[in-house]
Each structure stands twice: as C-alpha cells, then as structure tokens.
Amino acid sequence: MALTAEQDAFGMEMLAYLSGDTVHEIVERDDGFINAAPNGPGTYFNPYENWTPQEKEAIAYAKGRVLDIGCGAGRVGLYLQDLGHEVVGIDNSPGALETCRRRGFTNTHLLSITQVSADLGRFDTIVMFGNNFGLLGNRSRAKRLLKRFYHITTSGARLLAVSNDIYQTADPDHLAYQEYNRWRGRMAGQLRIRICYRGARSPWFDYLLASPEEMADLLEGTGWAINRLITAEESPIYAAVILKERRS
Description:
29% of the residues lie in helices and 28% in strands. It is an alpha/beta fold.
C-alpha cells in the first residue's frame, strides 16, 4: 500500500537530503529504542565507489532485466542503468520515487513488496540491497513472497540480497530485544519499526534481519538456494548470491 503524505517520512527525508538539507534518519523500534543516524540518508544516494565491499562484489552477479525492490533514492537502479540493464524499481514511498525521478531513474512503480506480481513482467535478477531482504517481514510472508519471485523470474535467475547477522552483537539493548521477540513467538531479528521525519510517521512495519543460517532456512522449499555468501571482517552485514533452482 502506498504511503500518504503524513506517513511518508522516508520520502520526505529523501527529498530534503536531495535539496541539500542536513537530515537525521530517525528509526523507532517498538520497545522504545530509537536510532538517530546523522546524515543517514546519504547511504541511499551513495555512488558505486562508496558502496560496501559486500555490495560491490554482489552486484557483479546482476544480469539481464532487473527488479530493484525498495529502490529508495535509486542508487542501485542508476548504477545498473548506466551499465545498460533494463531496471524496474519499486517502493511504497511517493517521495522516494520522486527522488528517483529527479535523479534520472524513471522506470519505477509505486508498489510495496507484497504487490510484486507478473504484471511487472519477468526478471533475470532481483536486487534487495541496503538490508532490504528485511522487507520480507516475517517467516510466513518471506516464504510466500520468495515463491512468488520464483514465478516472475526467468530460468537461471538470481536474487542478490543484503542482510544483517543480528547475532554478531554484544549490545544489551539489542540482545534484550532478541529475547523479547522470542518470548512473543517472533524470529529474534524480526524488528517492528517505523520511520520518523519532522511531523511524519510511517506506519509500524516488520523488518526482518536474518543470519545466513536463517536466510537459508527461509529459502528452503521456495525454489531458491544460497550460492555464495559475501562477508567482510568485523562486520555483521553480508550479501548473498541466491540462485533459482531447477525443478524437474
């Protein structure tokens, strides 16, 4: 579902950053924890040379027609466009898509991840960078959407996903939240968050951070399997090159 103006905190901060404003990205978690990243939106605008090593290595596996899920300010789409790929971006933020348009990434659709369908055509690659594997939300929705992705992709397709191994932390606030999630029957890294910017507040939504082992479990039975993990020393962030399995 597309966000209203009052809910589009993410889009508002993208447009403000694009205009040259100093912007703090505020993420509120449902246990009261608040993360305020100074100039946080800058990561959504990063040119390729400023990407993480994990993303730089993973994007080399992109081929053919590409679906960029949660395209944000368009950094992935613009990079792949410049390489000659046909790229389709989706986001549920009108402000984010307006930012993309102003930056030259125009083949975008105002859709949430749950609205991805065959109406967009078939894809050779799906990209979920910036921890956007998390947009799968929870275990049951992840299974359902991954099966849908299988049916809208070509033979030999690949899914390039970035996630965060939440178990690589000693932060007591994060460890307590993991226990809180287990207590209420959720995956440990199943965050419940919202984005805040000035007077706008996004709806609360689930954002799933999964370890490599949990990612492999979520992929089981969906027609996808991890082919390669790309990690960096002393970082919980990793990229996965996930290939479509052949079915007999």
